[in-house]
């Protein structure tokens, strides 16, 4: 892996983890209230917040952990499903681009991090 790819991988992975971590905290503590209102407006129940938040925390822990390449694949898949589901939900609801963009950004960072991950983090 070239030095440039390593840098891009770590920048994308850290930015992605920061975004997912922030949203996980919001979902677990259910604050600010606007976030819960937005989730309900999209048609999701409040308890879904807690489920997503907890699984995001587990996924964030799995991505940088040494070894366990299959667990990393599952974490990346979960993050892809979450971001693509959010993107589709916002599009279906006719939301403005500003509301859709975080899903696009986090989805892109997920794919970049997955694609550029070191060989030692891939399934042989």
How large is the count of helical segments?
5
- SSE string: HHHHH
The secondary structure category is mainly alpha
User: How far is it from the N-terminal to the C-terminal residue, by CA?
Assistant: 16 Å
Helix content: over 70%
Q: What's the overall geometry?
A: globular
Largest sheet properties: none
Oligomer: single chain
Q: Give a count of the beta strands, DSSP E runs of length 2 or more.
A: 0
Task: Report strand %.
Answer: under 5%
| Radius of gyration of CA atoms, rounded to a whole number | 15 Å
- Average residue pLDDT: 94
Please mark out the parts with pLDDT under 50 across 5 or more consecutive residues, or reply none: none
List key phrases describing it:
5 helices, mainly alpha, 124 residues
Description:
Helix content is 77%, strand content 0%. The chain has 124 residues and is mainly α. The radius of gyration is 15 Å and the shape is globular. The two termini are 16 Å apart.
Précis, in short:
77% of the residues lie in helices and 0% in strands. The protein is built from five helices and no strands.
Secondary-structure map with pairings?
Blueprint: H1 3-29, H2 33-41, H3 47-62, H4 69-92, H5 97-116
Helix pairs in contact: 1-3, 1-5, 3-4, 4-5
